[in-house]
Amino acid sequence: MKLFLILIRSSWVSGLVSGLLGALSGMANLGLIMLIHRALTDDPSDSQWLPYLFAGACVLVLITQVTAKHLLVQLSQATAARLRYELCTKIIAAPLPTLESVGSHRLLAALIDDVNSITSALSAFPAACANAMVLVCGLVYLATLSVPLAGGTILMASIGVFSFMTGLRFANRHLRQAREDQDEVVKQLRAMIDGIKELKGNNMRCLDFVYDVLLPADTKMRHSLIIGSNIQGFAHSWGRLFLFIGIGLLLFAWPQIATVSTATLTGYVLTILYLTYPLDGILGWLPAMNSASIAVAKIETLGLMIDQPEHQTSLSAPARFRSLEMHGVTYQYDSKDDNCFALGPVDLTLSPGETLFIAGGNGSGKTTLAKLLTGLYVPDAGRVQWNGNDVTDKERADYRQLFSTVFVEGHLFDRLLGIDATPGKLQHWLSILGMEDKVNVQTGRLLTGELSRGQHKRLALLVAALDDRPIFVFDEWAAEQDPGFKDIFYQQILPELHRSGKTVVAITHDDRYFSVASRVLKVADGRLNLVADLQSTPRRAA
Ligand SMILES: Nc1ncnc2c1ncn2[C@@H]1O[C@H](COP(=O)(O)OP(=O)(O)OP(=O)(O)O)[C@@H](O)[C@H]1O
Protein backbone atom coordinates (compact mmCIF):
# COMPACT_ATOMS: atom_id res chain seq x y z
CA MET A 1 0.00 0.00 0.00
CA LYS A 2 2.80 2.40 0.97
CA LEU A 3 4.40 1.57 -2.34
CA PHE A 4 1.39 2.95 -4.18
CA LEU A 5 1.40 6.04 -1.99
CA ILE A 6 5.01 6.61 -3.02
CA LEU A 7 4.01 6.18 -6.67
CA ILE A 8 1.00 8.48 -6.35
CA ARG A 9 3.12 11.11 -4.57
CA SER A 10 5.44 11.21 -7.58
CA SER A 11 2.66 11.71 -10.14
CA TRP A 12 -0.80 10.34 -9.56
CA VAL A 13 -1.86 11.36 -13.09
CA SER A 14 0.84 9.28 -14.78
CA GLY A 15 0.21 6.42 -12.33
CA LEU A 16 -3.52 6.46 -13.02
CA VAL A 17 -3.12 6.81 -16.80
CA SER A 18 -0.58 4.00 -17.03
CA GLY A 19 -2.80 1.81 -14.82
CA LEU A 20 -5.81 2.53 -17.03
CA LEU A 21 -3.82 1.93 -20.20
CA GLY A 22 -2.58 -1.33 -18.72
CA ALA A 23 -6.18 -2.29 -17.96
CA LEU A 24 -7.24 -1.33 -21.50
CA SER A 25 -4.48 -3.48 -22.96
CA GLY A 26 -5.73 -6.33 -20.75
CA MET A 27 -9.24 -5.93 -22.13
CA ALA A 28 -7.91 -5.84 -25.69
CA ASN A 29 -5.94 -9.01 -24.93
CA LEU A 30 -9.03 -10.74 -23.75
CA GLY A 31 -10.88 -9.42 -26.80
CA LEU A 32 -8.35 -11.37 -28.87
CA ILE A 33 -9.22 -14.57 -27.01
CA MET A 34 -12.93 -13.99 -27.49
CA LEU A 35 -12.37 -13.41 -31.20
CA ILE A 36 -10.33 -16.63 -31.43
CA HIS A 37 -13.14 -18.47 -29.67
CA ARG A 38 -15.67 -16.99 -32.09
CA ALA A 39 -13.50 -17.88 -35.08
CA LEU A 40 -13.25 -21.47 -33.83
CA THR A 41 -16.92 -21.96 -33.03
CA ASP A 42 -18.93 -19.55 -35.31
CA ASP A 43 -20.12 -20.30 -38.78
CA PRO A 44 -17.47 -18.91 -41.26
CA SER A 45 -20.18 -16.92 -43.11
CA ASP A 46 -20.93 -15.02 -39.86
CA SER A 47 -17.33 -14.15 -39.13
CA GLN A 48 -16.08 -12.18 -42.16
CA TRP A 49 -15.51 -9.12 -39.97
CA LEU A 50 -13.46 -11.08 -37.42
CA PRO A 51 -10.03 -10.58 -39.13
CA TYR A 52 -10.51 -6.78 -39.04
CA LEU A 53 -11.54 -6.85 -35.40
CA PHE A 54 -8.61 -9.13 -34.66
CA ALA A 55 -6.15 -6.75 -36.36
CA GLY A 56 -7.73 -3.77 -34.55
CA ALA A 57 -7.38 -5.54 -31.18
CA CYS A 58 -3.71 -6.33 -31.96
CA VAL A 59 -3.00 -2.66 -32.72
CA LEU A 60 -4.83 -1.59 -29.54
CA VAL A 61 -2.81 -4.06 -27.43
CA LEU A 62 0.42 -2.76 -28.95
CA ILE A 63 -0.40 0.95 -28.49
CA THR A 64 -1.74 0.64 -24.94
CA GLN A 65 1.10 -1.60 -23.76
CA VAL A 66 3.86 0.55 -25.23
CA THR A 67 2.32 3.81 -23.91
CA ALA A 68 1.66 2.37 -20.45
CA LYS A 69 5.21 1.02 -20.23
CA HIS A 70 6.69 4.30 -21.45
CA LEU A 71 4.73 6.26 -18.83
CA LEU A 72 5.58 3.84 -16.06
CA VAL A 73 9.29 3.69 -16.87
CA GLN A 74 9.40 7.47 -16.58
CA LEU A 75 7.29 7.43 -13.44
CA SER A 76 9.24 4.68 -11.70
CA GLN A 77 12.55 6.39 -12.49
CA ALA A 78 11.15 9.70 -11.22
CA THR A 79 9.97 7.90 -8.08
CA ALA A 80 13.42 6.37 -7.58
CA ALA A 81 15.08 9.77 -8.06
CA ARG A 82 12.64 11.33 -5.62
CA LEU A 83 13.25 8.61 -3.01
CA ARG A 84 17.00 9.01 -3.39
CA TYR A 85 16.71 12.78 -3.19
CA GLU A 86 14.55 12.63 -0.05
CA LEU A 87 16.94 10.20 1.60
CA CYS A 88 19.97 12.31 0.59
CA THR A 89 18.28 15.43 2.00
CA LYS A 90 17.66 13.62 5.27
CA ILE A 91 21.24 12.38 5.37
CA ILE A 92 22.63 15.87 4.75
CA ALA A 93 20.32 17.36 7.39
CA ALA A 94 20.98 14.67 10.03
CA PRO A 95 23.43 15.26 12.89
CA LEU A 96 26.90 13.79 12.32
CA PRO A 97 26.87 11.46 15.39
CA THR A 98 23.61 9.91 14.15
CA LEU A 99 25.12 9.24 10.73
CA GLU A 100 28.29 7.85 12.30
CA SER A 101 26.28 5.41 14.39
CA VAL A 102 24.03 4.32 11.47
CA GLY A 103 27.11 3.65 9.32
CA SER A 104 27.76 4.40 5.67
CA HIS A 105 27.13 0.77 4.60
CA ARG A 106 23.47 0.96 5.72
CA LEU A 107 22.95 4.28 4.00
CA LEU A 108 24.46 2.98 0.76
CA ALA A 109 22.42 -0.24 0.82
CA ALA A 110 19.23 1.82 1.21
CA LEU A 111 20.19 4.35 -1.45
CA ILE A 112 21.11 1.72 -4.03
CA ASP A 113 19.51 -1.68 -3.35
CA ASP A 114 16.25 -0.65 -1.69
CA VAL A 115 15.53 2.10 -4.18
CA ASN A 116 16.22 -0.36 -7.04
CA SER A 117 13.83 -2.96 -5.55
CA ILE A 118 11.11 -0.34 -5.44
CA THR A 119 11.80 0.82 -9.00
CA SER A 120 11.67 -2.67 -10.46
CA ALA A 121 8.37 -3.47 -8.70
CA LEU A 122 6.85 -0.22 -9.96
CA SER A 123 8.11 -0.80 -13.51
CA ALA A 124 6.00 -3.96 -13.68
CA PHE A 125 2.88 -2.09 -12.55
CA PRO A 126 1.21 -1.65 -16.03
CA ALA A 127 1.70 -5.34 -16.76
CA ALA A 128 0.11 -6.17 -13.40
CA CYS A 129 -2.83 -3.85 -14.19
CA ALA A 130 -3.21 -5.49 -17.60
CA ASN A 131 -3.12 -8.93 -16.02
CA ALA A 132 -5.67 -7.94 -13.38
CA MET A 133 -7.95 -6.57 -16.09
CA VAL A 134 -7.61 -9.73 -18.19
CA LEU A 135 -8.54 -11.76 -15.11
CA VAL A 136 -11.59 -9.65 -14.29
CA CYS A 137 -12.83 -9.49 -17.89
CA GLY A 138 -12.07 -13.18 -18.33
CA LEU A 139 -14.19 -14.05 -15.33
CA VAL A 140 -17.02 -11.86 -16.64
CA TYR A 141 -16.74 -13.61 -20.00
CA LEU A 142 -16.81 -16.98 -18.25
CA ALA A 143 -19.94 -15.85 -16.39
CA THR A 144 -21.64 -15.16 -19.74
CA LEU A 145 -20.90 -18.76 -20.73
CA SER A 146 -21.97 -20.34 -17.42
CA VAL A 147 -22.55 -18.64 -14.05
CA PRO A 148 -21.91 -21.74 -11.85
CA LEU A 149 -18.70 -22.50 -13.74
CA ALA A 150 -17.53 -18.90 -13.31
CA GLY A 151 -18.38 -19.12 -9.58
CA GLY A 152 -16.33 -22.34 -9.29
CA THR A 153 -13.40 -20.73 -11.10
CA ILE A 154 -13.49 -17.67 -8.83
CA LEU A 155 -13.54 -19.96 -5.80
CA MET A 156 -10.53 -21.95 -7.01
CA ALA A 157 -8.60 -18.81 -8.00
CA SER A 158 -9.37 -17.21 -4.60
CA ILE A 159 -8.10 -20.30 -2.76
CA GLY A 160 -4.99 -20.20 -4.94
CA VAL A 161 -4.32 -16.50 -4.28
CA PHE A 162 -5.08 -16.86 -0.55
CA SER A 163 -2.65 -19.83 -0.26
CA PHE A 164 -0.05 -17.82 -2.09
CA MET A 165 -0.47 -14.79 0.20
CA THR A 166 -0.23 -17.02 3.29
CA GLY A 167 3.00 -18.52 1.95
CA LEU A 168 4.29 -15.05 1.21
CA ARG A 169 3.72 -14.02 4.81
CA PHE A 170 5.87 -16.94 5.99
CA ALA A 171 8.49 -16.13 3.39
CA ASN A 172 8.55 -12.50 4.50
CA ARG A 173 10.02 -13.31 7.89
CA HIS A 174 13.10 -14.79 6.19
CA LEU A 175 13.28 -12.19 3.45
CA ARG A 176 13.25 -9.36 6.02
CA GLN A 177 16.05 -11.11 7.89
CA ALA A 178 17.97 -11.45 4.60
CA ARG A 179 17.61 -7.70 4.05
CA GLU A 180 19.02 -7.05 7.55
CA ASP A 181 21.90 -9.44 6.83
CA GLN A 182 22.56 -7.63 3.57
CA ASP A 183 23.72 -4.57 5.56
CA GLU A 184 26.50 -6.67 7.08
CA VAL A 185 27.48 -8.03 3.64
CA VAL A 186 27.69 -4.49 2.21
CA LYS A 187 29.76 -3.46 5.24
CA GLN A 188 32.24 -6.29 4.68
CA LEU A 189 32.39 -5.66 0.93
CA ARG A 190 33.30 -2.05 1.67
CA ALA A 191 35.91 -3.24 4.16
CA MET A 192 37.37 -5.49 1.45
CA ILE A 193 37.61 -2.63 -1.06
CA ASP A 194 38.99 -0.16 1.50
CA GLY A 195 41.41 -2.72 2.90
CA ILE A 196 42.53 -4.27 -0.38
CA LYS A 197 46.19 -3.27 0.19
CA GLU A 198 46.20 -4.84 3.64
CA LEU A 199 44.63 -8.03 2.22
CA LYS A 200 47.03 -8.30 -0.69
CA GLY A 201 50.00 -7.91 1.63
CA ASN A 202 49.08 -10.84 3.88
CA ASN A 203 47.71 -14.05 2.37
CA MET A 204 46.67 -15.44 5.74
CA ARG A 205 44.72 -12.26 6.53
CA CYS A 206 43.13 -12.48 3.11
CA LEU A 207 42.04 -16.09 3.72
CA ASP A 208 40.81 -15.27 7.22
CA PHE A 209 38.83 -12.33 5.87
CA VAL A 210 37.25 -14.32 3.06
CA TYR A 211 36.49 -17.48 5.04
CA ASP A 212 35.82 -16.10 8.53
CA VAL A 213 34.20 -12.77 7.74
CA LEU A 214 32.94 -12.29 4.21
CA LEU A 215 31.63 -15.77 3.40
CA PRO A 216 29.88 -16.28 6.79
CA ALA A 217 28.11 -12.92 6.37
CA ASP A 218 27.19 -13.84 2.81
CA THR A 219 26.10 -17.36 3.82
CA LYS A 220 23.87 -16.00 6.58
CA MET A 221 22.16 -13.67 4.12
CA ARG A 222 21.95 -16.37 1.46
CA HIS A 223 20.48 -18.86 3.95
CA SER A 224 17.59 -16.55 4.83
CA LEU A 225 17.16 -15.58 1.19
CA ILE A 226 17.02 -19.22 0.02
CA ILE A 227 14.47 -20.23 2.67
CA GLY A 228 12.34 -17.15 1.91
CA SER A 229 12.56 -17.67 -1.86
CA ASN A 230 11.80 -21.41 -1.54
CA ILE A 231 8.68 -20.71 0.49
CA GLN A 232 7.73 -18.07 -2.06
CA GLY A 233 8.33 -20.47 -4.95
CA PHE A 234 6.31 -23.22 -3.27
CA ALA A 235 3.45 -20.79 -2.58
CA HIS A 236 3.56 -19.65 -6.20
CA SER A 237 3.33 -23.20 -7.59
CA TRP A 238 0.70 -24.16 -5.03
CA GLY A 239 -1.42 -21.11 -5.91
CA ARG A 240 -1.10 -21.87 -9.61
CA LEU A 241 -1.98 -25.50 -9.10
CA PHE A 242 -5.45 -24.57 -7.91
CA LEU A 243 -6.30 -23.19 -11.32
CA PHE A 244 -5.35 -26.53 -12.91
CA ILE A 245 -7.31 -28.40 -10.24
CA GLY A 246 -10.21 -26.17 -11.31
CA ILE A 247 -9.70 -27.11 -14.96
CA GLY A 248 -9.50 -30.81 -14.01
CA LEU A 249 -12.76 -30.62 -12.04
CA LEU A 250 -14.33 -28.77 -14.94
CA LEU A 251 -13.28 -31.33 -17.51
CA PHE A 252 -13.83 -34.51 -15.53
CA ALA A 253 -16.31 -33.79 -12.76
CA TRP A 254 -18.65 -31.16 -14.15
CA PRO A 255 -19.96 -33.16 -17.15
CA GLN A 256 -20.93 -35.92 -14.62
CA ILE A 257 -23.03 -33.42 -12.65
CA ALA A 258 -24.60 -31.23 -15.37
CA THR A 259 -25.00 -31.15 -19.08
CA VAL A 260 -22.50 -28.83 -20.73
CA SER A 261 -22.29 -28.19 -24.48
CA THR A 262 -18.94 -28.85 -26.19
CA ALA A 263 -18.87 -25.19 -27.39
CA THR A 264 -19.26 -23.92 -23.79
CA LEU A 265 -16.64 -26.36 -22.53
CA THR A 266 -14.17 -25.40 -25.32
CA GLY A 267 -14.69 -21.68 -24.67
CA TYR A 268 -14.30 -22.32 -20.97
CA VAL A 269 -11.10 -24.34 -21.13
CA LEU A 270 -9.61 -21.97 -23.70
CA THR A 271 -10.35 -18.95 -21.51
CA ILE A 272 -9.18 -20.57 -18.28
CA LEU A 273 -5.97 -21.74 -19.92
CA TYR A 274 -5.45 -18.25 -21.19
CA LEU A 275 -6.18 -16.85 -17.72
CA THR A 276 -3.35 -18.88 -16.22
CA TYR A 277 -0.90 -16.44 -17.87
CA PRO A 278 -2.22 -13.26 -16.24
CA LEU A 279 -2.69 -15.10 -12.96
CA ASP A 280 0.88 -16.30 -13.25
CA GLY A 281 1.97 -12.78 -14.07
CA ILE A 282 0.29 -11.40 -10.95
CA LEU A 283 1.64 -14.18 -8.74
CA GLY A 284 5.08 -13.51 -10.23
CA TRP A 285 4.75 -9.78 -9.59
CA LEU A 286 3.71 -10.18 -5.95
CA PRO A 287 7.22 -11.29 -4.79
CA ALA A 288 8.71 -8.20 -6.44
CA MET A 289 6.04 -6.14 -4.66
CA ASN A 290 6.92 -7.97 -1.49
CA SER A 291 10.63 -7.13 -1.82
CA ALA A 292 9.69 -3.55 -2.61
CA SER A 293 7.54 -3.39 0.55
CA ILE A 294 10.47 -4.71 2.59
CA ALA A 295 12.66 -2.05 0.95
CA VAL A 296 10.09 0.68 1.75
CA ALA A 297 10.00 -0.48 5.39
CA LYS A 298 13.81 -0.46 5.50
CA ILE A 299 14.02 3.03 4.03
CA GLU A 300 11.36 4.19 6.50
CA THR A 301 13.24 2.73 9.46
CA LEU A 302 16.45 4.31 8.28
CA GLY A 303 14.61 7.56 7.57
CA LEU A 304 13.25 7.55 11.11
CA MET A 305 16.73 6.85 12.49
CA ILE A 306 18.19 9.84 10.70
CA ASP A 307 15.08 12.02 10.65
CA GLN A 308 16.21 14.61 13.19
CA PRO A 309 16.85 17.48 10.81
CA GLU A 310 18.94 20.29 12.11
CA HIS A 311 17.92 23.86 11.48
CA GLN A 312 19.09 24.78 8.03
CA THR A 313 21.48 27.59 7.36
CA SER A 314 20.87 30.69 5.30
CA LEU A 315 22.83 30.82 2.04
CA SER A 316 24.25 34.26 2.79
CA ALA A 317 27.96 34.82 3.49
CA PRO A 318 29.23 33.55 6.86
CA ALA A 319 28.63 35.95 9.70
CA ARG A 320 31.39 37.94 11.31
CA PHE A 321 33.57 36.45 13.99
CA ARG A 322 34.45 38.53 17.03
CA SER A 323 34.78 35.89 19.73
CA LEU A 324 34.22 32.21 20.41
CA GLU A 325 34.04 30.69 23.86
CA MET A 326 33.47 27.19 25.17
CA HIS A 327 32.35 26.98 28.79
CA GLY A 328 32.30 23.65 30.62
CA VAL A 329 31.68 21.74 27.38
CA THR A 330 31.44 17.95 27.73
CA TYR A 331 30.79 15.22 25.18
CA GLN A 332 30.51 11.46 25.42
CA TYR A 333 30.19 9.07 22.49
CA ASP A 334 26.93 7.18 22.40
CA SER A 335 28.25 3.66 22.64
CA LYS A 336 27.11 0.33 24.08
CA ASP A 337 30.49 0.14 25.76
CA ASP A 338 30.37 1.53 29.34
CA ASN A 339 33.92 2.84 29.02
CA CYS A 340 33.25 4.97 25.99
CA PHE A 341 35.34 8.08 25.62
CA ALA A 342 34.28 11.30 27.37
CA LEU A 343 35.69 14.74 26.67
CA GLY A 344 35.68 17.69 29.03
CA PRO A 345 34.66 19.77 30.75
CA VAL A 346 36.50 22.04 28.33
CA ASP A 347 36.91 25.81 28.62
CA LEU A 348 38.38 27.58 25.61
CA THR A 349 38.41 31.10 24.19
CA LEU A 350 39.28 32.02 20.61
CA SER A 351 39.89 35.53 19.35
CA PRO A 352 40.20 36.82 15.78
CA GLY A 353 43.67 36.55 14.31
CA GLU A 354 45.16 34.13 16.83
CA THR A 355 46.94 30.91 15.96
CA LEU A 356 46.22 28.11 18.40
CA PHE A 357 47.98 24.75 18.37
CA ILE A 358 46.44 21.73 20.04
CA ALA A 359 48.72 18.82 20.89
CA GLY A 360 48.10 15.57 22.73
CA GLY A 361 48.53 11.80 22.55
CA ASN A 362 46.65 9.44 20.27
CA GLY A 363 43.06 9.02 21.33
CA SER A 364 43.27 11.89 23.82
CA GLY A 365 40.30 13.66 22.21
CA LYS A 366 41.78 16.28 19.85
CA THR A 367 39.59 15.45 16.87
CA THR A 368 36.53 15.14 19.10
CA LEU A 369 37.31 18.63 20.42
CA ALA A 370 37.69 19.94 16.84
CA LYS A 371 34.29 18.47 15.91
CA LEU A 372 32.71 20.13 18.94
CA LEU A 373 34.43 23.41 18.16
CA THR A 374 33.24 23.37 14.54
CA GLY A 375 29.64 22.53 15.51
CA LEU A 376 29.67 19.03 13.99
CA TYR A 377 29.01 17.56 17.44
CA VAL A 378 26.57 19.07 19.93
CA PRO A 379 27.89 19.31 23.53
CA ASP A 380 26.15 17.14 26.11
CA ALA A 381 26.62 19.92 28.65
CA GLY A 382 28.17 23.38 28.77
CA ARG A 383 27.86 26.29 26.36
CA VAL A 384 29.46 27.41 23.14
CA GLN A 385 29.21 31.17 22.67
CA TRP A 386 29.69 32.95 19.37
CA ASN A 387 30.11 36.73 19.50
CA GLY A 388 28.80 36.57 23.06
CA ASN A 389 25.60 34.60 22.23
CA ASP A 390 24.88 30.97 22.96
CA VAL A 391 25.00 28.66 19.95
CA THR A 392 21.68 26.79 20.09
CA ASP A 393 20.20 24.29 17.62
CA LYS A 394 18.76 27.21 15.69
CA GLU A 395 22.14 28.87 15.06
CA ARG A 396 24.32 25.77 14.78
CA ALA A 397 24.15 25.43 10.98
CA ASP A 398 25.04 29.12 10.58
CA TYR A 399 27.77 28.76 13.20
CA ARG A 400 29.36 25.92 11.20
CA GLN A 401 29.84 28.33 8.29
CA LEU A 402 32.52 30.13 10.33
CA PHE A 403 35.03 27.35 9.69
CA SER A 404 37.27 26.20 6.86
CA THR A 405 38.29 22.71 7.91
CA VAL A 406 40.68 19.98 6.87
CA PHE A 407 40.06 16.79 8.86
CA VAL A 408 42.34 13.75 8.85
CA GLU A 409 39.93 11.58 6.85
CA GLY A 410 38.50 14.53 4.93
CA HIS A 411 36.86 13.94 1.57
CA LEU A 412 37.78 15.77 -1.62
CA PHE A 413 35.02 16.37 -4.15
CA ASP A 414 36.27 16.20 -7.73
CA ARG A 415 35.39 19.85 -8.37
CA LEU A 416 35.28 23.13 -6.53
CA LEU A 417 31.80 23.36 -5.03
CA GLY A 418 30.22 26.31 -3.25
CA ILE A 419 33.32 28.40 -3.85
CA ASP A 420 33.37 31.73 -5.58
CA ALA A 421 37.10 32.45 -5.77
CA THR A 422 38.76 34.65 -8.37
CA PRO A 423 41.16 32.95 -10.83
CA GLY A 424 43.96 35.09 -9.31
CA LYS A 425 43.29 33.73 -5.83
CA LEU A 426 43.09 30.17 -7.16
CA GLN A 427 46.43 30.59 -8.95
CA HIS A 428 47.99 32.12 -5.82
CA TRP A 429 47.09 29.14 -3.61
CA LEU A 430 47.91 26.63 -6.34
CA SER A 431 51.42 28.00 -6.63
CA ILE A 432 51.96 28.10 -2.83
CA LEU A 433 50.79 24.48 -2.59
CA GLY A 434 52.63 23.37 -5.74
CA MET A 435 49.46 21.84 -7.18
CA GLU A 436 49.13 23.72 -10.50
CA ASP A 437 48.93 20.48 -12.50
CA LYS A 438 46.18 18.97 -10.32
CA VAL A 439 43.47 21.55 -10.94
CA ASN A 440 41.84 22.69 -14.15
CA VAL A 441 41.55 26.41 -13.50
CA GLN A 442 38.94 26.91 -16.25
CA THR A 443 36.51 24.20 -15.14
CA GLY A 444 37.38 24.07 -11.44
CA ARG A 445 37.84 20.28 -11.73
CA LEU A 446 40.23 18.65 -9.26
CA LEU A 447 42.20 15.64 -10.46
CA THR A 448 41.47 13.65 -7.32
CA GLY A 449 42.08 10.23 -8.87
CA GLU A 450 45.85 9.96 -8.84
CA LEU A 451 46.87 11.81 -5.68
CA SER A 452 49.33 10.83 -2.99
CA ARG A 453 48.14 11.28 0.62
CA GLY A 454 50.24 14.42 0.95
CA GLN A 455 48.87 15.85 -2.30
CA HIS A 456 45.36 14.95 -1.19
CA LYS A 457 45.88 17.02 1.95
CA ARG A 458 47.32 19.90 -0.08
CA LEU A 459 44.27 19.99 -2.33
CA ALA A 460 42.06 19.85 0.78
CA LEU A 461 43.96 22.87 2.11
CA LEU A 462 43.43 24.61 -1.25
CA VAL A 463 39.67 24.09 -0.94
CA ALA A 464 39.74 25.35 2.68
CA ALA A 465 41.77 28.42 1.68
CA LEU A 466 39.34 29.23 -1.15
CA ASP A 467 36.44 28.71 1.27
CA ASP A 468 38.04 31.61 3.12
CA ARG A 469 36.10 31.40 6.38
CA PRO A 470 37.14 33.42 9.46
CA ILE A 471 38.44 30.36 11.36
CA PHE A 472 40.66 27.61 9.90
CA VAL A 473 40.79 24.23 11.62
CA PHE A 474 43.54 21.80 10.56
CA ASP A 475 43.58 18.29 12.00
CA GLU A 476 47.18 17.07 11.74
CA TRP A 477 47.45 18.61 8.30
CA ALA A 478 51.24 18.51 8.15
CA ALA A 479 51.55 14.90 9.34
CA GLU A 480 51.80 13.56 5.78
CA GLN A 481 53.91 16.37 4.29
CA ASP A 482 57.62 16.18 3.46
CA PRO A 483 59.96 18.35 5.58
CA GLY A 484 60.08 21.05 2.91
CA PHE A 485 56.34 21.35 2.81
CA LYS A 486 56.01 21.22 6.59
CA ASP A 487 58.21 24.32 6.55
CA ILE A 488 56.00 26.00 3.94
CA PHE A 489 52.90 25.18 6.01
CA TYR A 490 54.24 26.51 9.32
CA GLN A 491 56.38 29.37 8.03
CA GLN A 492 54.49 30.61 5.01
CA ILE A 493 50.87 29.47 5.01
CA LEU A 494 50.01 29.94 8.70
CA PRO A 495 51.70 33.39 8.87
CA GLU A 496 49.85 34.40 5.67
CA LEU A 497 46.52 33.35 7.20
CA HIS A 498 47.49 35.25 10.35
CA ARG A 499 48.32 38.39 8.35
CA SER A 500 44.95 38.26 6.62
CA GLY A 501 43.27 38.23 10.05
CA LYS A 502 42.27 34.56 10.10
CA THR A 503 42.07 32.54 13.27
CA VAL A 504 43.82 29.18 13.02
CA VAL A 505 43.31 26.12 15.20
CA ALA A 506 45.84 23.45 14.23
CA ILE A 507 46.02 20.03 15.80
CA THR A 508 49.66 19.08 15.54
CA HIS A 509 52.44 16.90 16.93
CA ASP A 510 55.17 19.09 15.35
CA ASP A 511 56.63 20.58 18.54
CA ARG A 512 59.53 21.99 16.43
CA TYR A 513 57.08 24.60 15.16
CA PHE A 514 55.20 25.40 18.37
CA SER A 515 56.74 28.89 18.41
CA VAL A 516 54.61 29.80 15.38
CA ALA A 517 51.50 29.62 17.56
CA SER A 518 50.22 32.29 19.89
CA ARG A 519 49.07 29.56 22.30
CA VAL A 520 49.72 25.85 22.60
CA LEU A 521 47.17 23.67 24.41
CA LYS A 522 47.43 20.01 25.20
CA VAL A 523 44.62 17.48 25.41
CA ALA A 524 45.16 14.63 27.85
CA ASP A 525 42.43 12.14 28.76
CA GLY A 526 39.76 14.45 27.40
CA ARG A 527 40.96 17.49 29.38
CA LEU A 528 42.49 20.64 27.87
CA ASN A 529 45.53 22.30 29.46
CA LEU A 530 47.63 25.30 28.50
CA VAL A 531 51.22 24.35 27.58
CA ALA A 532 52.55 27.71 26.42
CA ASP A 533 51.19 31.21 25.95
CA LEU A 534 53.41 32.77 23.31
CA GLN A 535 51.25 35.80 22.63
CA SER A 536 53.75 38.18 24.23
CA THR A 537 56.84 36.58 22.61
CA PRO A 538 57.76 37.29 18.95
CA ARG A 539 56.30 34.73 16.46
CA ARG A 540 59.05 32.82 14.72
CA ALA A 541 59.50 29.40 13.29
CA ALA A 542 61.75 26.82 14.86
N1 LIG B 1 32.48 7.74 16.48
C1 LIG B 1 33.03 7.33 17.64
N2 LIG B 1 32.33 6.54 18.46
C2 LIG B 1 32.85 6.13 19.64
N3 LIG B 1 34.10 6.46 20.08
C3 LIG B 1 34.84 7.25 19.28
C4 LIG B 1 34.36 7.73 18.03
N4 LIG B 1 35.31 8.50 17.47
C5 LIG B 1 36.37 8.50 18.35
N5 LIG B 1 36.08 7.76 19.42
C6 LIG B 1 36.95 7.54 20.58
O1 LIG B 1 37.18 8.79 21.19
C7 LIG B 1 38.52 8.86 21.65
C8 LIG B 1 39.15 10.16 21.14
O2 LIG B 1 39.22 10.09 19.74
P1 LIG B 1 39.82 11.30 18.90
O3 LIG B 1 39.70 10.94 17.49
O4 LIG B 1 39.19 12.54 19.36
O5 LIG B 1 41.35 11.26 19.38
P2 LIG B 1 42.60 12.07 18.83
O6 LIG B 1 43.20 12.76 20.01
O7 LIG B 1 42.20 12.94 17.69
O8 LIG B 1 43.52 10.90 18.37
P3 LIG B 1 44.65 10.82 17.21
O9 LIG B 1 45.79 11.68 17.60
O10 LIG B 1 44.99 9.39 17.22
O11 LIG B 1 43.96 11.26 15.95
C9 LIG B 1 39.23 7.61 21.17
O12 LIG B 1 39.34 6.74 22.27
C10 LIG B 1 38.29 7.01 20.14
O13 LIG B 1 38.31 5.62 20.22
Automatic annotation (TrEMBL):
Annotated localization: Cell membrane
UniProt membrane topology term: Multi-pass membrane protein
Keywords (A to Z) from UniProt: ATP-binding, Membrane, Nucleotide-binding, Transmembrane, Transmembrane helix
GO BP annotations listed: peptide transport
Signal peptide interval: none
GO MF entries: ABC-type transporter activity; ATP binding; ATP hydrolysis activity; peptide transmembrane transporter activity
Positions of the ABC transporter domain: 324-542
Major place of residence: membrane
Protein name: ABC transporter ATP-binding protein YojI
Species whose genome carries this gene: Rubripirellula lacrimiformis
